[in-house]
Design a protein that fits this description.
Elements lengths: L6 E7 L4 E3 L9 E13 L2 E10 L5 E11 L5 H8 L3 H8 L2 H6 L3 E3 L4 E6 L11 E7 L5 E2 H9 L3 H9 L3 E2 L7 E2 L3 E5 L2 H14 L23 H16 L2 H13 L6
Amino acid sequence: MNTDRKALWAVRQSALPTVVRSCPDCPGTRHRASGKIRVNANGKMLDVWLLLSCATCDRTSKVPVHERAHVSTLEPARLVAYETNDPSTVRELVTSMSLAAKNRYRLDWTGTWELETRMPLYALDDPNPLPVRVRFELPAPVRVERLLQLGLGLSRAGVRRLVADGRILLPFAPDAKAHRDFELTIHGPGSVDAAKHAKSLDAPGADRTDPARTVLPPVPGRELPRRAATARTARTARTARTSPIDQVRSRMTRAAAVTVPR
């Protein structure tokens, strides 16, 4: 494999996920991040909340991040990030699956990502394999075959056909969802056909040249006519299966059946 030919695909963030949970003031269930974090101090004990805004009535609600935490348990830089509404910290909290599971809400990742491909000039009929590194800027669960559709400009059926033919090698099934970095390899048709041919030769029952089974040509002058050889072989086999007494009786029967000419 040519290690100089590599491609990088990046799953870039285009928006933050929507928090799906019930609103106390309206029937709405969708909330967006307000971009703010609230910190409340009671002596040396701290409470930290992520603030959300209802997409229907704009009501502000709180998601507990730390409850009754001693100030010494938080790093100073972390505390400053909370107090200054650091955008990267807000993004980290909004996209945190563990925080969502802890507070029993769901994240909707629809419309939150886009694929950026940095690929050298490559054609699908190129015989050389191309390794592709996929990196995630946010932990959005993305269906792998969707990434392949966008990265290669193919239909869903086209992607599945290449995977089935061994042209695309994946660490998991194409219908699986990935949210972490992984690698895949795109193979040209020539390399796949060669691999299949080598595999077929190694398979049991494949045609091989076996010296023990090779039939040598007959020695000149000793050839027998095909029909004569076949008849002689059959007679030899019948004689081998007949007892000596039966052989004598057979010869006497044939002699008695001969008629003497007048």
